[in-house]
Amino acid sequence: MSYNFPSPIKGENDLKLYEKYIKDCALTPKTEKPTAEPAEETLKEMLKKLKGKSLRVDSICGGRLSSRFGTLCETGNDYITLKTANGRGKVICTLADVRYIYVLF
């Protein structure tokens, strides 16, 4: 039998050679558990970092998807406040209705 594994195991001797091959190649499964990834930041934390950035927010209004453009002014527990593009007003969006947030760089 050649030592180019994997190849068919035809008997006890082949099985022993294959076990030795696996040990020599360090192909045995490792028992170490993977380390846990740190928890990703919440939406609220991410939005706080975006304060002052231009956003497009798509939300559900009357069963339809509507887009709002503006600069993020404030982030609350369940809402965000956008200053409109012309700077004359503010829009308050509840996070429960927000479907998509686009950051405009």
Structure characterization notes:
The protein is an alpha+beta fold. It folds into two domains: 1-36, no CATH class; 43-104, SH3 type barrels, CATH 2.30.30. Helices cover 19% and strands 36% of the residues. It is built from two helices and five strands, in the order ααβββββ. A five-stranded antiparallel sheet has the order 4-3-2-1-5. A hairpin with a 2-residue loop joins β1 (54-61) and β2 (64-75). It is rod-shaped and about 85 Å long.
Please describe the structure with a list of short key phrases separated by commas or semicolons.
single chain, 105 residues, alpha+beta, SH3 type barrels, five-stranded antiparallel beta sheet, 36% strand
Number of separate structural domains: 2
Q: What is the rounded distance between the termini?
A: 64 Å
The top level CATH class name of the largest domain: Mainly Beta
CATH fold-level label of the largest domain: SH3 type barrels
**Largest sheet, strands/sense/barrel:** 5 strands, antiparallel
The shape, in one word, is: rod-shaped
Query: What is the count of DSSP helices, taking H or I runs of 4+ residues?
Result: 2
SSE order, one letter for each helix or strand: HHEEEEE
Q: Give the mean pLDDT.
A: 82
Q: Which class do the helix and strand fractions yield?
A: alpha+beta
CATH architecture name of the largest domain: Roll
Low-pLDDT parts are: none
Strand content: 35-45%
Q: Taking Cα atoms only, what radius of gyration do you get, to the nearest Å? A: 29 Å
Order of strands, main sheet, comes to 4-3-2-1-5
**Helix content, binned percent:** 10-25%
Number of beta-strand segments:
5
